[in-house]
């Protein structure tokens, strides 16, 4: 069943001074215009907004920080542009249907019998994964990914697209240095664990589609392209 992943009135439409440009563009494509959009980096990110009990939540963004520079696990020529996200796996483009969601919830989905009944439906496809404001540690992320690996999901897909994770909350405030370290540790775990179960998968970590803002709305059950050679990501909207 094709649907769209992301977006909420309380986080992406109501709060702040305006709707983020990337969110508005993808929501418009999902609901009205369709088309093919490149999923790009907005250049800034926030883990959470202003407390909803504070009237400023309606007029101000949360604390936003610049997204750090490019990451690459392979050699690149001098002067070549690099993606700000972390890439691993073979340098090839994968186009296929997506499935996935919040990494903490996916094991519940499968335990309830709501996961893919036939892994063949995922072959050649893309797995979308992201983590929530509960801030799982890198060790927890590794264990959750192993569940997907042992169930055969990581081996079935041809690409894994992992979102930039939130690394702080109202209850767990952290410094920019701590947040950067935790995101790097989680990226290491994603790259290493996917490689254990599927070394041929293209992996991209850091795309803004999960529990951070600005956020892209993505096709879920629709078609996306993760290009490990060009270091670009595209989404088809109906």
The poorly predicted ranges are: 75-80
CATH architecture annotation:
3-Layer(bba) Sandwich
Q: Mean pLDDT, nearest integer?
A: 94
Counted beta strands: 12
Structure class: alpha/beta
The CATH superfamily label reads LD-carboxypeptidase A C-terminal domain-like
Whole-number total of structural domains: 1
**Percent in strands:** 15-25%
Helix tally equals 6
What distance separates the N and C termini? 13 Å
The strand order across the widest sheet is 2-12-11-6-7-8-9-5
Radius of gyration: 17 Å
CATH topology: Glucose Oxidase, domain 1
Helix fraction, binned, reads 25-40%
CATH class descriptor? Alpha Beta
Most strands sheet? 8 strands, mixed
The dominant shape is globular
The topology string of helices and strands comes to EHHEEEEEHEHHEHEEEE
Question: Secondary structure elements and their pairing?
Answer:
Elements: E1 3-5, H1 9-13, H2 21-33, E2 35-39, E3 44-45, E4 65-66, E5 86-88, E6 93-102, H3 106-111, E7 126-130, H4 138-150, H5 153-156, E8 159-163, H6 176-197, E9 202-207, E10 218-220, E11 223-227, E12 232-237
Parallel strand pairs: 6-7, 7-8, 8-9
Antiparallel strand pairs: 1-10, 2-12, 3-4, 5-9, 6-11, 11-12
Helix pairs in contact: 4-6
